[in-house]
């Protein structure tokens, strides 16, 4: 695996901020995303076009997306739940629309106010409109490794959602460990099943780090052929509609492992750390990642 090229998708501006009680001012978000754009990262999920009442921290989505400086070679994505959200996202000229739903019924209901069955046509309409507008589309599946309301989630439920998303023309599926409960053995078992049906190039992993397993889970996934991982600067993140969800895998800790093992990402670690320190200063709270615990 040394010398493998890994794509890191920075989701800090969306997943990282969505669960924060402090509203990071729009100008600070923009300055931070501009810094992220200069790290060498190839994908940034910059905001979310969900209902602003559901996620007040990102109610400035259009202003943020219109305010940033677009760097060449960077894809700017955003979370988009439905056609109304896509209208706002297109107005803001995002490059990639990330639709989302859960593999478990209760989390889907709590998070997007619909049953799984009723969500399919909504995501299909959204994905197809995004593709028609020349955008790329990725699809998140939440609660792949367990649900905060239902506990275990059957792999058949994950397969069914993944098949539906791929049939809609969605290019990449991001498998979410929403509450950060997976361990490497479970990741291996789930991927063994999924990789028999779906090519590794179509899959990304989205690990939250509640039990500190995210890096170990990443390593197992890399060994099984997955090359795309979502992470957030500082280890920020969580889903307000998933009790117990904690931060995402921290981008700087992920880079430490990947680069240390000889894998390449195109990202300059020192610049990523600078971006973490910048936001930490603005938010006035200590970030939880390992590297942010080390003194300057
Ligand atoms: P709803 O209330 O069922 O929506 O919410 P609706 O379609 O019935 O519409 C109600 C009103 O909201 C209408 O306005 C719509 O226009 C408006 P009215 O006609 O009454 O004046 N509306 C909107 N306004 C702005 N933007 C929109 C939008 N949609 C409808 N996009 C909805 C359904 C999906 C919108 C809501 O439940 C919602 O916003 N949920 C988002 C929750 C969320 O953001 N959760 C966190 C992200 S997911 C996550 O973190 C997991 C992930 O990281 C992966 C992992 O870790 O597993 C991705
Ligand atoms: Mg998440």
TrEMBL record:
Keyword Amino-acid biosynthesis attributed: no
InterPro entries: Aldolase_TIM, HMGL, PYR_CT
GO biological process, one term: ketone body biosynthetic process
Pfam families (UniProt xref): HMGL-like
Gene3D superfamilies in the record: Aldolase class I (3.20.20.70)
Alphabetically ordered keywords of this record: Lyase, Metal-binding
One MF annotation (Gene Ontology) recorded for this entry: metal ion binding
Residue ranges occupied by any Pyruvate carboxyltransferase domain in the UniProt entry: 6-273
Family under the similarity heading: Belongs to the HMG-CoA lyase family.
PANTHER family, sorted: HYDROXYMETHYLGLUTARYL-COA LYASE (PTHR42738:SF7)
Protein name: Hydroxymethylglutaryl-CoA lyase
Species, as recorded: Brevibacillus invocatus
